[in-house]
Amino acid sequence: MNGREPGRLVRDEQLRHSAILGLGHYRASRVVPNAEIVEAIDSSDEWIQQRSGIIERRWATPSETVQMMSVAAARDALDDAGIEARQVDAVIVATISHLMQTPAVATAVAHELGTDRAAAFDISAACAGFCHGIALASDLVRAGSSTHVLVIGVERLSDITDPTDRGTAFIFADGAGAALVGPADEPGIGPVVWGSDGEAQDYIRQREDWRDVVAAGSTRIPHLTMQGNPVFRWAAFTMAKVAAETLERTGIKAEDLDLFVPHQANMRITDAMARAMNLPEHVRIARDIAHQGNASAASIPLALRQMVKDGEAHSGDLALLIAFGAGLAYAAQVVRVP
Ligand code: COA
After folding, report:
1. Mean pLDDT along residues 226-238
2. In three state form, how does the secondary structure of 191-244 look?
3. Do 157 and 214 reside in the same domain of the chain?
4. What one-character DSSP code corresponds to residue 18?
5. Share of the chain above pLDDT 70, in %
6. From start to end of 220-317, where are the E strands?
7. 277 and 173, same structural domain?
8. In this structure, what CATH number is given to the domain that contains residue 122?
């Protein structure tokens, strides 16, 4: 006998607080203005700006792989937090555009960063992936399963976007964002409100599965398709309700917020949500989409990190994060800016 009660599993009974300790990002380097893509989709700079708020987007060069961008964003977050890579004991990568199905890119990222054999796995929750990752990381830290968790949202959507598709070619983009989540004296990550609406799974999806591609003798990577109008209406309506529920569960009101950092899907959706929530004037709203495009799982950390760099967000600010995408999957939480 080792002094333990037989048959009883050993657990830390005490939950601790969790917080984001550092933020990082990496923008894909190729700046692609609307003028470069309009011909293939019979569109115009004016139409794209008016319907989406996008002026230009970032696309990756061949050397800017999912792994490369993840590592760069993660290093930025580690520097920001003042934490060494070997102190990281879990790495979660949220992505839908790492085109190698196994092993998880998180394992390669953890290795390249120099963690001490951290737990590492990928999650697939599309544009809501980063907020899912923050929720998981927070619970891992609170329960004592991990101490320092890197959450990375990363996409190379240019690989899976059809440049001739009028509904998607102007929206999607590439980049990475990261957050280092760890223990804290005060709560820094509020309760998550998350869910999915599988009835709407056809609204945004990969056009065909890999077996169909092979059976058809094609050599093309399956592209994303989107029913833009239903997504727009679903997001504007459902996300305002999710935002209200998140504030209620966190025990704060809209006037207590300093920042609103929604998934950068479309500037008009952001505006519609802000109107529906009756956000007070002082709440600063992320509008990173104008020069980045929609980088799916990377969009929220890209936007938040930029707001800190530009002096629009300050340490201690309360930010509502809310994200939605293919599935349709969604997640939201209030966090304190590190
Ligand atoms: N350029 C120019 N005209 C276009 C166009 C394009 N790229 N795409 C569609 N149009 C035209 C249509 O042919 C249609 O013309 P018509 O009125 O003469 O028939 C008109 O614009 C309206 O088309 P519609 O598809 O209803 O556009 P929309 O107002 O819904 O805007 C989106 C399209 C994609 C900008 C919009 O639906 C959207 O942003 N949806 C949300 C997408 C999103 O956020 N996705 C990310 C989720 S992660």
Report:
1. 91
2. CCEEEECHHHCCCEEECCCHHHHHHCCCCCCCCEEECHHHHHHHHHHHHHHHHH
3. no
4. E
5. 98
6. 224-226, 259-262, 284-285
7. no
8. 3.40.47.10
Give the distance (Å) from ligand 1 centre to CA of residue 227: 9
Strands 119-123 and 90-94 come out as parallel
State both tokens at 57: 């987007």
Q: What is the DSSP string of 72-96?
A: HHHHHHHHHHT--GGG--EEEEE-S
Residue with tokens 């004991």: 89
Closest Cα to atom 38, ligand 1: which residue?
A: 228
Average pLDDT over residues 119-146: 97
Q: Is 299 in the pocket of ligand 1 (CB under 6 A)?
A: no
Catalytic: 127? yes
Print the domain residue range for 210.
Answer: 193-336
Nearest CA to ligand 1 atom 33: 228
Please give the pLDDT value at position 261.
98
pLDDT of residue 7: 75
Overall number of domains in the chain: 2
pLDDT at 83: 98
Q: Does residue 253 surpass a pLDDT of 70? A: yes
Q: Is the pLDDT of residue 1 over 60?
A: no
Which of 225, 229, 294 to mutate for ligand 1's pocket (most ligand atoms within 8 Å of CB)? 229
Q: Whose CA is nearest to atom 44 of ligand 1?
A: 265
Mark whether 63 and 165 lie in a shared domain.
yes
Q: How far apart are CA 75 and CA 61, in angstroms?
A: 20
Long-range contacts made by residues 243-246, C-beta under 8 angstroms, separation at least 24? 243/273, 243/276, 243/277, 243/320, 243/322, 243/332, 244/277, 245/193, 246/190, 246/191, 246/193, 246/320, 246/322, 246/332, 246/333, 246/334
Q: What is the pTM for the complete model shown?
A: 0.95
230 CB within 6 A, ligand 1: no
